[in-house]
Amino acid sequence: MESSLRIVPASAPKSATIKDTAGSLGLHDTLQYGPRSIAAEVKTESSLRGRLENWEETQDNLKLNLQRNLYGMHAPMRLLMERKIVNTCPPMPGLPQSNLHLDILMGRDETIGPADVFGGMEAGPSLDTHKELEKNLM
């Protein structure tokens, strides 16, 4: 849990290009800037994509930090402990995989996403519960 109150995820770190690290002769200055990385120069991933991938994590981190500031350290620790307990609870065999408890603890119970509509019902639930129990025991 990072202790910052960011609303939006941080932008990706800037990578130095050959223009930024050029010495007086126009060549890369290895002693000052380290070895040249072609992968960093060719990387064309936009910062928007990185921010969107880290959006939920940043929002969750903000909520935990606000709880820590308002209620003390016990509030986010308790919430993280409850999430861990709910996350490790195995599903009942024969029933579709759903973790409603974790959705409630994460605050996602009021939103509808693609996983809520299309999640895990392609093959349907298994009707042989004994085979599912044997598979879990092995």
How would you characterize this protein structure?
The chain is built from eight helices and no strands. The chain has helices at 30-33, 38-42, 47-53, 55-71, 74-88, 100-106, 114-118, 129-137. Helices cover 50% and strands 0% of the residues. The longest helix is centred in the middle third of the chain and has 17 residues, at 55-71. The chain starts with 29 loop residues before the first helix and ends with a helix. It is mostly helical and 138 residues long.
Layout of strands and helices, then pairs:
Elements: H1 30-33, H2 38-42, H3 47-53, H4 55-71, H5 74-88, H6 100-106, H7 114-118, H8 129-137
Helix pairs in contact: 5-6
